[in-house]
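We store sequence with structure; for instance:
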Amino acid sequence: MSVYTELTRDEIIAIVGGYNLGGLHNFTNIAAGIENSNFFIDTDRGRFVLTIFERLDRNSIPWFMQLMHHLSHHGLPCPDVQSQRNDGAMLFDYGEKSGCIVSCLPGSIMDQLSETQLRSAGVALAQLHAAGEDFRPVRSNPTGAEWLDVTANQVMAEARNRYGDNAVALLAEEISWQKAHHTEGLPQGIIHGDYFCDNILFDGDDVAGIIDFYYAHTAPWVMDIAIAINALAIKLGEDDTPRMMAFMEGYQRVRRLTDAEQQALPALLRLAALRFWLSRLYDAIFPRDGAMTQSKDPEEYRHKLLLHRNYSAHALFF
């Protein structure tokens, strides 16, 4: 999360006044993360999270509200949109932008996870997939093949200046490789799409909540696993193998992967690394203005991509 739009106390009081939440006591900017503008708000009815959507298409936002409501009501510990607005709507308007207020979950964000916490994170991701299995509205992948091509063309020249010819050659080569390696017919449903440490809340070693569903879409579940392994388990160190195995052990306590998913995972680990490397390159080259914003190092995901290109992860898990 970040803060790109600054709100005054009077503006937040006006927004909260549209809900059945009582009066505003305090509010705090949330600086962690890289998307949207987020604030903790303390009201007569407790603590909530207020979000101003900065980049999401206005027409797609209701899908995310419906998804969080569905997952919350199917037992997943995730934010539930507050629908107690006086006008019955799930969203409020702030100028040309939309916003929402969601429940605030207990728990703490960890900078990195232990093997025990990785198992818990694996269990929770499998539970998310199960909870969303009967969610009917479909949302296509926003970072698919067309996005890869368009974004790569946008960053290529400056990426060469900043990171060198080898980085640009790797980017072009991996995009070409991915086009030749399709993964079709895999079990699919709702995926989180951004299952990073800063989107998981822990109570000790147990997952207490999952937040920030604004990259969620319909895709093979094993793609979510690949994103999560890259984000949570791989530190580019000697203990990466047991960390990856711990996450997979947790996930498969709830849902066993099919043979097809097992075969697809190595290629999807590469694809997940490519996507996040490319998105971070874009954010580094075309930074957005904001009061409290964060960008993340693209080089981390270039090295993770190289890691997956140099060995087969399939043998580690099954």
